[in-house]
Amino acid sequence: MGRSRYLRATHPGPAGGLDPEAPEALLECLVGVSERIGRPAVLVAMDDLSAIAVSRVAPMLTDRFRIPHQPDDLPARVADKAELSRLCARWDIPHPETVIPQSGAEAARAAWTLGLPVVAKWSRPWLLPAGSGLRSTTLVDSATGARELYERSAEAGSPLLLQRFLPAGPDTDWFFHGAFGRGGRPLLAGTGRKELAWPVRAGLTAVGRWLADPAVEESGLRLAERLGYQGILDLDFRRDERGAVRLVDFNPRPGAQFRLFADDAGLDVVQAMYLDLTGQRVPEPAGGPGRVFLAENYALLAAVRGRTLPRPRGPVEAAWFAADDPGPFLAMLCAFLGRGLGKGARVLRGVPAQGRRTVRAVRAPRQRGGERARGDGVTAARPGAPEVPAPPGSPEASAEPDELVSR
Question: Whole-model pTM?
Answer without folding.
Answer: 0.83
